[in-house]
């Protein structure tokens, strides 16, 4: 089953990070990606530009609307994701627990709806 | 339970306008359905994770059984029969639903040969229990979910026990089942390090199942809950609470024949100890001892062990001839400190009233600050008892009348009516 980890955190926390902190964080994520790859469960990942740089588009009201910023203003914003392929939620939970983001933010686990159609 | 209403609702005794069967076949069919429910759901849902599809398939199988069993007789292995029919129904359903290519699931389900429910039932049912107690599910839905999927209770019954609207309960159950399937919660026995966390939810649900209609006597639900607690105690004896729960249910079960006389409730301290099941009491005492031995030193005993210890004090009356109210007061104090509940608070006041006097009991009752106290029958009953002991007869009668108003079962109601009649005689 394909699971996506949505990594949420408060961007204010990143503001106070030093050069060393960033290097430390990058290293932690590098090790995590390596572990996922080695286990053969890695599909994809990305690290996103801050939410205030987001552009949101919708045609839901019938006309095209383009908005500056994320679709909802929240304290904790989506900062990145991981997509992995594992057997079940228990295994996904174990991997999510090892994601560096759990130490400063929240990781939401969602299973893929594709393939269940 | 779903199967129970299914059997009763479709009037199986009539076929083509003629009565073709007898009540014995009907009763036997019901027995099979009720006993097998959780096992069959567990086996049908285990691989796909789809509990709702399993429920639908099993419901169809029950309907088929109602059509065929009265005329052709009940099969040698009724559970296997139901499982085969249910699996075939699922294959039909999958084919009907399939717009694209059916994956390996269809092949797997087509394999209906050599189904032996007896072999697999233990683990599969346990796996289902653990699924229902999964930490990814909302805590409040775990017990109802177990009651429905493992023990076969209807949403309506569960709603009554949990004091919510039936439609609300049904909706929450469906939501939980959808999540199990779509989030991929696995049907597996958890790893040993996850036992304590997962086990407590399972135990709560099993006890919840036992508590639903323990009073009214010989219900299958009680047997099923006791059976499940025994399996859990075997599976995880290193977890003291599994032993504690099994002991607790054992003590209560042991008093089954003594607790109702002529349709009237007999309170535990007044029960005829000759009518208690002493073998079961001995076994429960031994389980409780084992639980204490397995406990980490200085660790507070779990809720079920404390409740079982309370029942053990009551059980000791068979040997000593009297109830040790001092010990009960202390145990209830411990229970209320670690695991406060409205029931514990009221029971503690009752024990203290016997040990230290009615006035002390009334004081404790006045201190209780739980929601729903005004409509809680035992509160009014204990208060009435204390008031009567304190010679406030008119107030006591009034409190008994309130207790009766909030009483939901027959034997307790009759007992309360008896109490009020005695008081009225005194007053006149």
Descriptive notes:
The complex is a heterodimer of chains A (117) and B (428). By secondary structure, chain A is an alpha+beta fold. Chain A has three helices and six strands, in the order βααββββαβ. The longest helix of chain A is centred in the first third of the chain and has 20 residues. With 428 residues, chain B is an all-alpha fold. Chain B has three domains: 189 residues, no CATH class; 108 residues, no CATH class; 91 residues, Alpha Horseshoe (Serine Threonine Protein Phosphatase 5, Tetratricopeptide repeat), CATH 1.25.40. In chain B, a hairpin with a 2-residue loop joins strand 1 and strand 2. Chain B is globular. The interface between A and B is small, with 13 and 10 residues.
Task: Please render the helix and strand layout as text.
The complex is a heterodimer of chains A (117) and B (428).
Chain A: E1 2-9, H1 11-15, H2 19-38, E2 42-47, E3 55-58, E4 65-68, E5 77-85, H3 89-98, E6 106-111
Chain B: H1 2-9, E1 14-15, E2 18-19, H2 23-45, H3 51-72, H4 78-97, H5 104-110, H6 117-132, H7 139-149, H8 155-162, H9 166-183, H10 195-212, H11 220-235, H12 240-254, E3 260-261, E4 264-265, H13 278-294, H14 303-315, H15 317-320, H16 325-338, H17 342-356, H18 358-367, H19 377-389, H20 393-405, H21 410-427
Antiparallel strand pairs in B: 1-2, 3-4
Helix pairs in contact in B: 1-3, 2-3, 2-4, 2-6, 3-4, 7-10, 8-9, 10-11, 10-12, 11-12, 12-13, 12-14, 13-14, 14-16, 16-17, 17-18, 17-19, 18-19, 19-20, 20-21
């Amino acid at each position: 089953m394909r699971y996506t980890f949505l990594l949420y955190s408060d961007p204010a926390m990143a503001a106070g990070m030093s050069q060393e902190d960033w290097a430390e964080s990058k290293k932690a994520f590098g090790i995590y990606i390596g572990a996922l790859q080695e286990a053969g469960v890695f599909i994809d990942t990305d690290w996103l530009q801050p939410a205030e740089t987001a552009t949101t588009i919708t045609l839901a009201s019938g006309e095209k609307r383009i908005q500056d910023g994320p679709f909802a203003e929240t304290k904790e914003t989506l900062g990145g994701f991981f997509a992995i392929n594992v057997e079940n939620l228990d295994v996904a939970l174990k991997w999510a627990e090892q994601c560096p983001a759990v130490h400063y933010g929240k990781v939401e686990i969602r299973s893929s709806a594709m393939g269940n159609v | 339970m779903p199967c129970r209403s299914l059997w009763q609702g479709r009037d199986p005794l009539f076929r083509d306008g003629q009565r073709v069967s007898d009540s014995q076949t009907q009763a036997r069919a019901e027995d099979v359905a009720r006993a097998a429910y959780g096992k069959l759901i567990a086996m049908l849902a285990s691989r796909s994770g789809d509990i709702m599809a399993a429920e639908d398939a099993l419901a169809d199988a029950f309907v088929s059984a109602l059509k065929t069993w009265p005329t052709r007789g009940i099969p040698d292995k009724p559970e296997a029969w139901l499982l085969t029919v249910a699996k075939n129904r699922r294959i039909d359903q999958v084919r009907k639903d399939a717009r694209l290519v059916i994956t390996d699931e269809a092949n797997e389900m087509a394999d209906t040969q050599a189904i032996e429910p007896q072999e697999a039932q233990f683990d599969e049912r346990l796996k289902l229990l653990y699924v229902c107690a999964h930490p990814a599910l909302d805590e409040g839905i775990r017990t109802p979910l177990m009651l429905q999927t493992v023990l076969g209770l209807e949403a309506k019954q569960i709603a009554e026990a949990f004091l919510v609207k039936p439609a609300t309960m049904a909706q929450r159950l469906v939501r939980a089942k959808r999540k199990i399937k779509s989030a991929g919660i696995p049907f597996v026995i958890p790893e040993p390090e996850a036992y304590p966390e997962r086990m407590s939810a399972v135990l709560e649900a099993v006890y919840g199942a036992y508590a639903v209609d323990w009073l009214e006597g010989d219900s299958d639900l009680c047997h099923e809950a006791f059976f499940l607690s025994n399996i859990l105690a075997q599976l995880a004896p290193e977890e003291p609470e599994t032993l504690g729960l099994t002991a607790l249910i054992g003590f209560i079960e042991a008093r089954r024949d003594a607790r109702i006389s002529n349709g009237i409730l007999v309170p535990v301290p007044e029960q005829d100890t000759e009518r208690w099941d002493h073998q079961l009491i001995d076994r429960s005492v031994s389980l409780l001892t084992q639980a204490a031995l397995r406990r980490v030193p200085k660790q507070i005993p779990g809720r079920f062990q404390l409740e079982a210890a309370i029942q053990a004090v009551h059980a000791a009356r068979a040997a000593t001839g009297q109830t040790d109210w001092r010990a009960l007061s202390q145990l209830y104090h411990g229970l209320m400190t670690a695991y406060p509940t409205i029931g514990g608070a009221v029971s503690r006041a009752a024990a203290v009233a016997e040990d230290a006097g009615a006035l002390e009991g009334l004081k404790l009752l006045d201190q209780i600050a739980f929601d729903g106290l005004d409509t809680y029958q035992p509160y009014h009953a204990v208060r009435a008892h204390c008031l009567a002991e304190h010679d406030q007869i008119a107030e006591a009668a009034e409190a008994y009348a309130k207790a009766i108003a909030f009483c939901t079962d027959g034997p307790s109601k009759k007992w309360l009516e008896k109490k009020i009649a005695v008081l009225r005689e005194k007053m006149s």
